[in-house]
Amino acid sequence: MAATIQHIEVNGLKIPLIYEEDKRLPLATMQFTFTNAGSITDTDKPGLAKVSAKVMNEGTKALGSSAFAEALESKAIHISASTGAETFVVEVGSLTEHFDEALGYFEALLKDPNLTKEALDKVKTTTIGGLSRKENDFDYIASNELKAVLFEGSTLANPSSGTIESVKSIEIDDVKDFIEKNIISSKLIVVLGGSVDLEAVKKKIATIIKTLYKGKQTQVKHHTVVKEARDSVLKRETEQAYVYFGSPYNMKADDEDYYKSRVATYILGTGGFGSRLMEEIRVKRGLAYSAYARVNITKSSSYMTGYLQTKLESMDEAKETVKEVIAKFVKKGVTQEELEQTKKFLLGSEPLRVETMNQRLNRTFMEYYKGQELGHSAEELKKIQKLELKDLNDFIKKHTEVLNLSFAIVTK
User: Fold this and answer.
1) pLDDT tens-digit readout, 109-120
2) Neighbouring-strand partners of residue 142
3) Which of 38, 244, 283, 373 lies at a CB distance of 3.0 to 4.6 Å from 146, suitable for a disulfide?
4) Are 61 and 81 in contact (CB under 8 A)?
5) Which residues are 83's β-sheet partners?
6) Phi and psi for 232 in degrees, rounded to 5?
7) Cβ-contact 101, 75 below 8 angstroms
8) Is-contact 326 311, C-beta < 8 A?
């Protein structure tokens, strides 16, 4: 059964419910997804959204972390909180026979999270430990530095996990304030799937939603890439150079030409050994084991990014090669053969992207979240199938902003 979009009316709000029935296994899953509630809201204390999610994973105040976890484990119930750039998600899953009980624990967690200093201190200790271990993860360092360069002065310039200093500064009142502002019904989209009695579960979901603050819906702020490209070189004790690059990419999340972008970036740098970057940087010049480029198009930002590792002495050549490959790509476009090979891959691999219920639910969620019609992804594949070489190359040649490349490099 394909996913559908329904609504649950609570406190004057029509809460979207994305639902897919799947009775092949006696399982049920549900997500409460809160929009404009992820790391892009960390304006004052980077890492607050992720720390808040981890505190939510410490169970309820009444039971505490261990007893709550043991209660779930005894019935094979899974409840977890996580956050991305734009969303905060609380998820529950179980066998269908235990789903009512699972929803009870889910409601208890939302009503009475373990907002104690002890829970926060535990989370801060493990988070700071993880950040300390990443001080020698040069991919992590270069990636964060690139974001700092591309989005200088905005929230997106900060690492989503925060820094050791910012995490240390987070107090329990910060977490309480985050939850009060973001875990609210006006920001909520519900995702439900599996083998359930839909009408009965909808009533239980409505009861849970009533326990949330109504709050105020806020729009995702769009952050643009800085106009002037620049390089940032960080010196570390390393045997390799870590070269990360990025540029503006002028496209909105609901842009009707997004399918052309999928095709173009696959040919440029997403398609592994068949991509232009891999061909020039690894196959022809032997400068790196791998090289990739992709575009990130969301409500909060739109940019191209890529990376490679190379020998210290090859760093400058690799950097110039990246510039040359992208410049040639924009100027001359792609070949008919590249277009046909990309069509075959994207169309042929489609079943792998929708083979599980969770994949289909996530796809429907993204269509709804971007303001697209249900089934937009299927229509996009039809457009890819019909895409002509001239139309694709005209599209590529218009996006000269990708030539405005910034670099973040970790080297010795």
Assistant:
1) 999 999 999 999
2) none
3) 244
4) no
5) 88
6) -130, 120
7) yes
8) no
Q: Which two tokens stand for residue 162?
A: 């925060």
| Domains of the chain, residue spans | 4-210, 231-411
Q: What is the pLDDT of residues 356-371, one digit of tens each?
A: 888 999 999 999 999 9
CATH level 3 topology of 4-210: Cytochrome Bc1 Complex; Chain A, domain 1 (3.30.830)
Sign of the CA dihedral with 104 first, then 106, 111, and 113 last: positive
Three-class SS of 304-369: EEEEEEEEHHHHHHHHHHHHHHHHHHHHHCCCHHHHHHHHHHHHHCHHHHCCCHHHHHHHHHHHHH
Half-sphere exposure in the Cβ direction for 87 (13 Å, CA): 20
Q: Which two tokens stand for residue 393?
A: 């190359």
* Residue 40 DSSP label: G
Distances (CA, A) of 100 to 123, 188, 408: 29, 21, 50
* Closest among 41, 49, 250, 53 to 155, alpha carbons compared: 41
Burial class (CB in 10 A: 0-12, 13-18, 19+), 40: buried
- Please give the pLDDT value at position 364: 93
Q: Is 173 exposed, middle or buried (0-12, 13-18, 19+ CB in 10 A)?
A: exposed
| Residue 22 contacts residue 1 (beta carbons within 8 Å) | yes
Q: 306: closest CA among 412, 402, 163?
A: 402
pLDDT digits (tens, 9 = 90+) for 285-319: 999 988 999 999 999 999 999 999 999 999 999 99
Helix (H) or strand (E) holding 218: none
pTM for the model: 0.94
